[in-house]
Amino acid sequence: MWGRKNIILLASGILIVVCVLITFLSNAGGKKTTLTFQDGSTYTGTTNEGKPVKGTLKFKNGDVYTGGFKDGHFEGRGTFKSHNGWTFTGIFHKGVANGAGKLQDKDHVIQAGNYVKGEYKDK
């Protein structure tokens, strides 16, 4: 039924699958690190080849962005909190609001809806 050769082949196949999964899972999240930039801003989160992927960027002036990054820009879902008290939560593309989002101050929502290239679009 199960010969020695088949058992060895099965065990080898399982070992290969486990090795591939371990390699993939250990690299899937990227490397968590803290980066400090020349202007005094700091980034804490995952990186890929030294570039921010997902984390928090704290600017020297007190502004904070938490979310995704791509090619040095805010990308995907994120939240930008201004040191002036307003917050934007939504979708970013190439560093600007682009998609569903909500702009609010400490007390109430100012604008909620669709943003295109950083501008609120009522309809």
How would you characterize the overall build of this protein?
By secondary structure, the chain is α+β, with helices and mostly antiparallel strands. Mean pLDDT is 82; it is low at 17-27. Strands 1-2-3-4-5-6-7-8-9 form a nine-stranded antiparallel β-sheet, with no helix packed on it. It has one helix and nine strands; from the N terminus they run H-E-E-E-E-E-E-E-E-E. The protein starts with a helix and ends with a strand. The longest helix is centred in the N-terminal third of the chain and has 25 residues, at 4-28. The chain has one helix spanning 4-28, and strands spanning 31-36, 42-48, 51-58, 64-70, 73-81, 87-93, 96-104, 109-116, 119-121. 20% of the residues lie in helices and 52% in strands. The chain has one domain (31-121).
Question: How is the secondary structure organized here?
Answer:
Layout: H1 4-28, E1 31-36, E2 42-48, E3 51-58, E4 64-70, E5 73-81, E6 87-93, E7 96-104, E8 109-116, E9 119-121
Antiparallel strand pairs: 1-2, 2-3, 3-4, 4-5, 5-6, 6-7, 7-8, 8-9
Instruction: Please provide the count of β strands.
Output: 9
Task: Give the strand content.
Answer: over 45%
Spatial order of the strands forming the largest sheet:
1-2-3-4-5-6-7-8-9
Rg: 22 Å
Measured between the Cα atoms of the first and last residue, the distance is 69 Å
The biggest beta sheet is recorded as: 9 strands, antiparallel
> What is the global morphology?
globular
Structural class: alpha+beta
- Count of runs of 4 or more consecutive helical residues: 1
The helix content is 10-25%
Low-confidence stretches: 17-27
Mean pLDDT across all amino acids: 82
Domain module count: 1
Give helix and strand order, one letter per element, not per position: HEEEEEEEEE
